[in-house]
Amino acid sequence: MSGDNRDDVLPGNDQESPHEADSTAEQPTGDNSGGYAAAATRRGRRRRGKKASWLKVTLLTLLSMFLVVVLAFVGFALYLNHVLSSNITHGQALPSSTVKPAVDAGNSQNILLLGSDTRSGTVNDVRAGGRADVIQLVHISAGRKSVQIIHFPRDLYVAIPGHGKNKINAAFAYGGPALLAQTLSDLLGGVTINRYAIIDFKGFADLTNDLGGVNVYVAQPFTEAGYGRFHQGYNTMNGAQALGFVRERHQLAEGDIDRGRDQQAWISAVVRKTLSAGTLLNPVKLTNTVTDLTKYTEVDANTSAGDIRNLALDMRNMRSRDITYFTAPFTGFANNPVAGSIDVVNVPQMKKLGQALYHDKMAGYTNGKNVIQ
């Protein structure tokens, strides 16, 4: 109908949209074309201002959260450092080597790891009247890329400076870890022993318990009163069971030789458990582990808490697959009128072992290598 133009008007054409209303409110009247650009600029500034404020709040929140985490981590690290510094006990100074270190050895280190059969639970008594039932030399390669752990059987018949020939653990009884280190150094052709650490048997047990027990592979099953009962294969051990396991030798085919391999199996299990996320990311478990690693441990006079901390940091990327295990070379067993049952040193192979340690070439040394699962 000519009088009604409603059919020519689309629904809604007679109303402004919200966007149009907002637009016209900002538009100046007249022919001022620059007004449109100015209005658009003002709207853009408001949007950018709101976005910048939101971004600033978000960034500040994230930064605050990050700082809280960092401060918590730093505080925990400082606390662990305090535990380490407070608990660690220093003993004898190691003798200086008369052999100049090899240039190609870089910053490799040799650490004498000893287990004392004292069970007093007092670190000051870790050497008092005790014997070195665990003698393991830990070689850490230059660049901290690999570790080799070498078991020296306690019945190995060797020359002890100032005391003639006897079983190697007699050196510990005669003159403590310093004399034992000197005996080992001489046996290996002058290899420098950089540090030592002694842990008593209560420390073995407590460390195992702190880790929630360890899963150890038993190569030779045995049953003996006072030592325990273990089947072949993996056995989950608590502290008391692990202590019996690392001490047993009577039921093993090669006695103290096999006991050293069992000790290495326990070390391997502890390393795996310690490096697991369940330990490293658990503040309580990690604190207890550090506490018992230090509470019953003695180190040489020149090793500081800072040295231990820095070595741990240097080895933070180490994994259990980077560790290999050996038994020091011997040719068999014999009896001595004074020393009794002894292990006879394989002199040519011992010399090769000494050269491999001296030049940090243990990657190419295979004699006496143990398969530890």
From TrEMBL:
Positions of the UniProt region annotated as Disordered: 1-45
Top-level taxon of origin: Bacteria
Entry annotated with the keyword Transmembrane: yes
Record keyword Transmembrane helix present: yes
Membrane-spanning parts: 53-80
Domain Cell envelope-related transcriptional attenuator: 131-274
Record keywords: Membrane, Transmembrane, Transmembrane helix
Signal peptide limits: none
Family: Belongs to the LytR/CpsA/Psr (LCP) family.
Protein name: LCP family protein
Source organism of this protein record: Flexivirga alba
